[in-house]
Design brief:
CATH architecture of the largest domain: 2-Layer Sandwich
Order of helices and strands: EHEEEHEHEEEEH
CATH topology of the largest domain: Signal recognition particle alu RNA binding heterodimer, srp9/1
Radius of gyration: 16 Å
Number of helices: 4
Distance between the termini: 23 Å
Helix content: 10-25%
Number of strands: 9
Shape: globular
């Protein structure tokens, strides 16, 4: 089994797609007006309109209601990414700091309020922990 995708449900597919394009530098593919996806070498971030929810089960998902998940992106230089995104005026929750598990990270929110983390393994233990992962090279 492979974990391949995370999907946000939103009332504003265009706005969310534009935010994640700006965040990642990856152009979203748009197979339908109600759906966008940003495809990375290791996973896909999908963005679906609230109008698609009844396809799964009516009421199964609700936009802008997440307060328990964090979407994280591994970056080569977390401080450089913070400076780049800060210049764009994004909604930061924290500035870069060393986390107890050895990553240097910061957090911000997307237009629907979802928590997004960007991090770089920083301590020797964290660097070693990520060394064998297929996406470690960036």
């Amino acid at each position: 089994m492979n974990f391949v995708s995370t999907r946000f449900v939103t009332d504003d597919v265009d706005g969310m797609a534009a935010f994640y394009e700006q965040l990642t530098g990856i152009a979203a593919s748009r197979p339908a007006p109600v759906f966008a996806e940003l495809i990375t070498p290791t996973a896909t971030l999908a963005i679906g309109s609230t109008s698609t929810v009844p396809v799964f089960a009516p009421g199964a998902a609700e936009p802008a209601a997440n307060r328990s998940a964090i979407i994280e992106f591994l970056v080569d230089d977390v401080d450089a990414e913070f400076r780049r995104l800060d210049a764009l005026g994004l909604d930061f929750v924290t500035e870069p700091a060393l986390m107890p598990w050895g990553n240097r990270a910061f957090f911000l929110r997307d237009p629907d309020g979802n928590l997004i983390g960007l991090f770089t393994p920083s301590t020797p233990a964290a660097i070693e922990r990520f060394a064998d992962r297929p996406y470690a090279a960036g």
